[in-house]
Structure to design on (118 residues):
């Protein structure tokens, strides 16, 4: 069992920045971490992911504006969001994904609201 706690959401104006942070209750070394978001009436979508080897991938809509990073020593993963747009408004969820004894595990945080006004 892994608990994930997100923080850093809020209300900002278009063009401003926010930094989301996710703290895990255990070591994240060797695990895949990601940020997803869900806007009202839409499906949850991948925003950014960082693999166990440090490789990253981003949704096309956030490339060049968002940066995902992790800190294995602190068991945290962060999402730096610059140049925010109203369409970035959503609940953002932290995710951890890993294999253990050939079984895949997925855990989610409770979500943090990001609202961008125009």
């Amino acid at each position: 069992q892994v608990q994930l706690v997100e923080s850093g959401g809020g209300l900002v104006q278009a063009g401003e920045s926010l930094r989301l942070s996710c703290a895990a209750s255990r070591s994240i070394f060797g695990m895949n971490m990601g940020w997803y978001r869900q806007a009202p009436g839409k499906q949850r979508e991948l925003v950014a992911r960082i693999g166990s080897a440090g490789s990253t991938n981003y949704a096309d809509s956030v490339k060049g504006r968002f940066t995902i990073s992790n800190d294995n020593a602190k068991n945290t993963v962060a999402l730096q969001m610059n140049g925010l747009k109203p369409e970035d408004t959503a609940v953002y969820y932290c995710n951890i994904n890993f294999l253990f004894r050939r079984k895949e595990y997925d855990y989610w945080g409770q979500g943090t609201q990001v609202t961008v006004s125009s």
The radius of gyration is 14 Å. The chain has no helices and eleven strands.
